[in-house]
Design the sequence.
């Protein structure tokens, strides 16, 4: 039985600094929240009267929209700040922005920013809760939680399960949150990709590094395929996208060597024909849309736990 009754800090900035018990609490709460989806009216009053501000300094579809959906299902009010039309374009600092928005009555901020540490900086200047929706190359904790939640749904306890994370590890905040969370739950994690896209000393996080993808896939339970982030790369990291797909791309032929119950994941958006073929992306082994749906449940759970919602929220 989980002894933790709530998250121990007012913010969720990453999975590195939260305990295994807190991770399991978030996952268990997400299971309860997912039941709300299938009601005639998919809404509960758990956060009625709470106000949440979405502050995205980078583009987003799934994360931003799923936080909106999560807040609405919990009956919270939402302010979605359009950064391109905000005072940030006039030079206003992040700290000034969030302080002004806090005094307007917001109890939580969901922040995505290109700079690692931006949500941490905001959290130190706010009484309100801050949720990191992705900061630079650092972490994306709710994506990590939803990936782990999806894995647990498919194969139960993850202790001893092997997860292979493939692709652009160097630029991936998703990979880092997955690794921190999975290692704490007792999973075995391997990272695979071109040497130019594997961070130095990543083995210190507790993972195995291999540049030969086929060696790692033979006994894998899950393959988590990462997007090649061309917008974050300098020149010379990849010879060509065609060559990358030939060596590291997940396609039907490569899956023939995997376990029959292999599960394919991708945080999106997908570059079809680069990190994953359309045949696999649309095939029976992938749970990509399950990840998207589970993202709403996980974000409901995080908002509920941080904002002190009523304990019978899903009743």
Sequence:
């Amino acid at each position: 039985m989980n002894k933790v009754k709530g998250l121990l800090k007012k913010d969720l900035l990453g999975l590195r600094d939260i305990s295994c018990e807190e991770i399991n609490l978030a996952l268990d709460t997400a299971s309860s929240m997912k039941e709300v989806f299938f009601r005639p009216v998919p809404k509960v009053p758990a956060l009625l009267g709470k106000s949440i501000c979405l502050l995205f300094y980078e583009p987003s579809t799934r994360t931003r929209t799923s936080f909106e959906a999560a807040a609405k299902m919990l009956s919270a009010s939402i302010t979605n700040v359009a950064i391109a039309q905000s005072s940030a374009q006039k030079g206003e600092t992040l700290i000034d922005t969030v302080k002004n928005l806090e005094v307007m009555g917001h109890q939580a901020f969901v922040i995505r920013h290109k700079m690692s540490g931006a949500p941490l900086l905001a959290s130190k200047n706010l009484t309100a809760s801050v949720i990191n929706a992705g900061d630079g190359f650092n972490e994306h904790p709710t994506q990590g939680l939803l990936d782990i939640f999806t894995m647990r749904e498919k194969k139960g306890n993850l202790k001893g399960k092997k997860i292979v994370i493939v692709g652009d590890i160097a630029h991936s905040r998703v990979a880092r949150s997955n690794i921190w969370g999975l290692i704490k739950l007792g999973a075995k994690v391997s990272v695979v990709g071109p040497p130019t896209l594997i961070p130095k000393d990543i083995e210190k996080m507790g993972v195995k590094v291999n540049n030969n993808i086929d060696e790692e896939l033979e006994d894998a339970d899950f393959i988590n395929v990462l997007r090649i982030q061309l917008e974050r790369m300098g020149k010379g990291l990849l010879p060509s996208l065609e060559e990358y797909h030939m060596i590291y791309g997940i396609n039907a032929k490569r899956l023939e060597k995997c376990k029959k119950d292999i599960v394919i994941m991708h945080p999106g958006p997908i570059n079809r024909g680069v990190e994953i073929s359309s045949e696999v992306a649309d095939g029976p082994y992938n749970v990509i849309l399950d990840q998207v749906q589970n993202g709403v449940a996980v974000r409901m759970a995080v908002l509920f736990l941080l904002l002190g919602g009523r304990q019978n929220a899903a009743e």
User: Anything to note?
Assistant: Strands lie at 51-56, 77-81, 108-113, 129-135, 162-166, 188-192, 208-210, 222-225, 263-265. DSSP finds eleven helices and nine strands in the chain. Confidence is low (pLDDT under 50) at residues 310-315. The CA atoms of residues 163 and 222 lie 5 Å apart.
